[in-house]
Structure formats: structure tokens, C-alpha cells
Write a structure and sequence with these properties.
252 residues; alpha/beta; TIM Barrel; eight-stranded parallel beta barrel
């Protein structure tokens, strides 16, 4: 049986890790390199680094910070934010990332997914979906860091991303993000059941039970969290111990 992954997320703005509620009211949460190393020592399976304002500000990903962070880590590392073309994908991977996360770019030009997958392999291409409820059993995709609605249905977009060559979906519920009320289980399950590639649940983690529910009831392959790790409420090890006791297979 494949183990479920626990992935701390480093949302970075101007070189610092930040965390907010529903993508707003950002607070400083530390240095990304120090945070990444701490999570690796705690037993994190992967790290996700997102430059959360790169796309909206039309800035390039801070490659030097990516190099610093990737140089220190031995676990897989995903980088997203400001990646708008095949050239950007190539630069980020050469800077040391194992994967790239495409959000705004993938929606505006889906060929970035197929080109990246064809050249580097689907395992390197993660499509990040920021989704907000838009009615009964429907969620809309947002881009530019959650600032702009697209009118695209999230489930349909996940299916298309897989067809274009994405190897993984990073799914964030904008309604639950930063709330600590738990993941959007229904949304997560809808996406997970609609694709044949791994789905990472994101947005709303408040405790280890929330993670168990996302993995068991939401059928996610991995869970991503930020604030409960950044502010010392849980260590990755504590979460894994809880999940293991609950019968969820994790790498110890």
C-alpha cells in the first residue's frame, strides 16, 4: 500500500514565509530555508514552496532563494509562483526543484502543462487549483493568487489538466484556507474521484484529525498544511504518529 504524504507548505512573499486567512492579512512566519530544514528533520515527505505574489505582481520566482532552499534539502521540493512558460519551468527545475507547480499559467496557456510534461516528464508537473464554492456541488477556479475568478469548473479543470499531462493536483479550498476548520472534504473527494493522478489536499488544516479525514474520507493522496506547522502547534512527526495510530499508512 502506498503511504500518504505530509507536506508542509512555505508560502513566500519577498523572501519570507507568510501565512494569512483566506489569502489575506499575511503575517511573517520565518525564513524559508530554516523552515524547510526543520520540517525535513521532523520527517516531512516533501516541501512545497509557493511565491504567492509572483503571478499577480508579474514577478519572476526568486531563483536564488530556490537554489538556497533546494541545496539544503534531501527530500522532494516543489516550486510554484510566477512560472509562466516552458522557459520558466526549465529555469526552476535547473535551480534545484524536483517539481514545478503551475496555477495561473496553466489556466492562461494549458500548453505549458503539455510542453513541460513532454520534456521533463509528468512527475515534474503539478497543477495547482485554487477553488471557491460557486453553488451546490460546484467550485470555481481562481487565478492570480486567488484574486481573479475564471468561470472554470474545478472538477472539469482537474480532468483536463490530467489529460494535458499533469502528474499531480495541488487542490486548495479558498473557502477553508487558513480557517483551521478542516479541509473541504467534499471538494477533495470530488476531485480525487475524477482523476487518476495524486491529489494533495490543501486549505483549512487545524489538527491531525482534519488530515486523517482528508486522507480517508476525502481520498487525498497527501495533505498540505502551513500554519499548524509554522506556529508550532504540531510537528510533522506528531501528525504522522496520530495518522499511524488511526490506520493511515505513512512513512515513519
Amino acid at each position: 500500500m502506498l503511504t500518504k504524504r505530509i507536506i508542509p507548505c512555505l508560502d513566500v512573499d519577498k523572501g519570507r514565509v507568510v501565512k494569512g486567512i483566506r489569502f489575506q492579512n499575511l503575517r511573517d512566519a520565518g525564513d524559508p530555508v530554516e523552515q524547510a530544514l526543520a520540517y525535513e528533520r521532523q520527517g516531512a515527505d516533501e516541501i512545497v514552496f509557493l511565491d504567492i505574489t509572483a503571478s499577480s505582481d508579474r514577478r519572476d520566482t526568486v531563483l536564488e532563494m530556490v537554489r538556497r532552499t533546494a541545496y539544503e534539502l534531501s527530500i522532494p521540493f516543489t516550486v510554484g509562483g510566477g512560472i509562466r512558460s516552458y522557459s520558466d519551468v526549465r529555469r526552476v527545475l535547473l535551480a534545484g526543484a524536483d517539481k514545478v507547480s503551475l496555477n495561473t499559467a496553466a489556466v492562461l496557456d494549458p500548453t505549458v502543462i503539455s510542453e513541460g510534461a513532454e520534456i521533463f516528464g509528468s512527475q515534474c508537473i503539478v497543477v495547482a487549483i485554487d477553488a471557491k464554492r460557486a453553488g451546490m456541488d460546484r467550485w470555481e477556479v481562481y487565478i492570480y493568487g486567488g484574486r481573479r475568478p475564471t468561470g472554470i469548473d474545478a472538477v472539469d479543470w482537474a480532468k483536463r489538466a490530467e489529460m494535458m499531462g499533469a502528474g499531480e493536483i495541488l487542490l486548495t479550498s479558498m473557502d477553508y484556507d487558513g480557517s483551521k476548520d478542516g479541509y473541504d472534504i467534499l471538494l477533495t473527494r470530488r476531485i480525487a474521484e475524477s482523476v487518476n493522478i495524486p491529489v494533495i489536499a490543501s486549505g483549512g488544516a487545524g489538527n491531525a484529525e482534519h488530515m486523517r479525514r482528508a486522507l480517508a474520507d476525502g481520498k487525498a493522496d497527501a495533505v498540505l498544511a502551513a500554519s499548524i506547522f509554522h506556529y508550532g502547534e504540531y510537528t510533522v512527526g506528531q501528525v504522522k504518529e496520530y495518522l499511524s495510530r488511526a490506520g493511515i499508512p505513512v512513512r515513519v
